[in-house]
Amino acid sequence: MPADTSLNGIHFMLPTPFDGNGEVDLVPFKRLVDCAAETGCKGVVVLGVMGEAHRLADDERLAVLDAVVAAADGRMTVTVGVSSESNALVAKRTREAQEHGGTAVMVSPGRMAKPNEAVLYRYFETVQSVATIGIVVQDHPSESGVNMSPAFIARLNAELPRAQYLKLEDPPTPPKITQVLALTGDNMAIFGGLGGSFLFEELRRGGSGTMTGFAYPEVLVALYRLLEAGDIVGARKLFYDWVPYIRYENQPGIGLSIRKYAMMKRGLMDTFGTRPPSPAIDKPTQDELDDIMASLPEIPAV
């Protein structure tokens, strides 16, 4: 059946704020979610890699989820990361996401000593068996260690009715969008990630939006709207104007800390700490980031 288009657009992937003692700080979630709503994002994503979900205890995960759903207050969608290392745990987390108000679940494969498609299919099939909300298949091999072919993704889409969405983070992403859409037609909505690094090209290839923690969601919303209106020249200029910051923010390893720092400077968070062993940025990097942020083009109004 045709993919549900209600998720189409820009989704702000939320970090998990920590206080000075390294404990989860729930207070800033209201500011982060308000930012997403006020800048025209379709929704927010919580408990993903950006949210350091793999470094949170179970009670912390539920507290974060409840805080985000309360802050969203029905204004936008809430996609919940439920990726796990076992079929039993991914089923449990899927049920929790539904019970606590999630709009969709985002599922990346668990790490496997010997990845194979039969085991991988059963993992996603387990999610389908308990899901009452949409499933976003996350294709992020640099994190999961699992590569999914366009044919396998198309099989998930064809055989698991709720797997209507793909979060594609397997570069080069534009060609893979073309390959997946050639197999799924209009039955799968594809969202980018990777800090919006290829959003202009992804949208022109037929992408439905993006789910990313880029610290200036206004830019991505404006880009999406320009292309939606057919203004390719305006969208291209906007994207190219922001490439220097996009490039700097999307550094492997420290990209999360950079985004948290930028969000703190924007007043969306009170600290920018990550939970070890997630790496933090050093003082020279902070100084470089201050310099880049001081030289940014005008933030588009949305």
Tell me about this structure.
The protein has 302 residues and is α/β, with parallel strands linked by helices. The protein has one domain (9-252): TIM Barrel (Alpha-Beta Barrel). The chain contains twelve helices and eight strands. It has helices at residues 29-38, 58-72, 87-99, 117-130, 141-144, 150-159, 173-184, 199-204, 217-228, 232-249, 255-265, 283-294, and strands at residues 9-13, 43-46, 77-81, 104-107, 134-139, 165-168, 189-192, 209-212. The chain has an eight-stranded parallel beta barrel, surrounded by six helices. The two termini are 33 Å apart. The relative contact order is 0.14.
Layout of helices and strands:
Layout: E1 9-13, H1 29-38, E2 43-46, H2 58-72, E3 77-81, H3 87-99, E4 104-107, H4 117-130, E5 134-139, H5 141-144, H6 150-159, E6 165-168, H7 173-184, E7 189-192, H8 199-204, E8 209-212, H9 217-228, H10 232-249, H11 255-265, H12 283-294
Parallel strand pairs: 1-2, 1-8, 2-3, 3-4, 4-5, 5-6, 6-7, 7-8
Helix pairs in contact: 1-2, 3-4, 6-7, 9-10
